[in-house]
Sequence to fold (234 residues):
Amino acid sequence: PHATPDRLLPMSELLRVSNRDGIVTLTLNRPDFRNALSKELIFEMTAALTAIVADPASRVLVLAGEGKSFCAGMDLKAVAKDPFAMGDMLRELSRVSRTLRRLPIPTIARVQGAAIGGGCGLMVVCDFAVTHAEAKLGYPEVDLGICPAVVAPWLVKKIGAGPARAMLLLGGTMSGREGCERGIATHCVDEEAQLDEAVAALAKRLAAGGPNAMAATKRWLNQLDGSLEDAVLD
Fold:
């Protein structure tokens, strides 16, 4: 049978959302700013994820970034102009992260170019992350005089407390290949040009799973690793 065409879901200038054969792609669309997380983008992500959960046709979510980078983290230039916005942005980023983690469908981050700080945090929250060898990943917050508070719980769940402690205190970045070896990405291809094929193959495999079994397994895994504990995340 022929594949069904893309079915567009609610969109904005900052996000693109489409559903093709149950595989939903949510694309951050600030390529001129390397998809840095502005206040507006973060709040629109919450709305988009809520719509995706409500759509019974959703079977897999692919989180992507338009342009050369997946996500460069928080938009610090915007925060500098309005420092009082930082609290709202961090609280909403925490909300986005837990919403993404608790989706009843499997999630894949398609990571090209760079995933830095909050961008790396979004990558780690997803069930799977596919990147390429020369990507730039990591948490340089301490280098900038910032505590990586929002991303820390998810990194601890991903790679364990000891490795997460070393990674966050040392700061800096690493290659996509090293990120995969250290556990913050689950899959790594040699070239960026191979990303689409790798992500499509993984998404197709996940979409073939029983939706009720996927949802139940994700709920149980989230309970086991503390992803449902709002007190710490708050």
User: Anything to note?
Assistant: Residues 85-101 form the longest helix (17 residues). The chain has a mean pLDDT of 93.
